Amino acid sequence: MKKTSYLLLGLLLVASLTAACVNLKNRPLERRSFVLEVQRDEQPREDNGKLLRLGRLGITPVYGGKGLVYRLENGEVQSDYYNEFFSSPELMLSLELSRWLREAAFADVVPQDSAAIADASLEGVVTALYGDFRKATPEAVVEMQFFLVDERGGTGVLFNRTYLQRQPLEESSPEAVVKGMNLAVEKIYSELESDMSSALSASGS
Prior knowledge:
This protein is an alpha/beta fold. It is built from 3 helices and 9 strands; from the N terminus they run αβββββαββββα.
């Protein structure tokens, strides 16, 4: 009986030491935060004298969390717990859009809650924001839909367009995904700026 007890005690000791080694080798990964930010390099446009009301962007719920989202084969979608946005993605994209349009300078931009009587208002929603790893070359995918609405009681919707950008990634990493997203957003905002400037100019006084 004593032999059996000593043997059992020895086995338990070995198991506990092994577990300790496993725990040391598998320490929790450090969580990292990323920001969505874009750079507008063009010169300001000619001011068309219009007042633009800018609302906060909405976002499809599946992409509204702080964790980076990846789409994988067989329809699998993952949210990355260890790599996340510093703030909510729709807030960061809203702030970047506001800054972009102010730098574009083709219209005076006021916030959504302003009492000013605007010529038009911009409404938008982010419908895709993820890293796509379903193909041989991974991509950052960003899709947004925008409505430019006439607030002067004229033609109603001045334009409605969905913008989709798929940016190939240099490597399969969270850093590359965020970098690709930022490049994709830059292209979308550049196209949006051009469309809005034309639509506001064509809408009359």
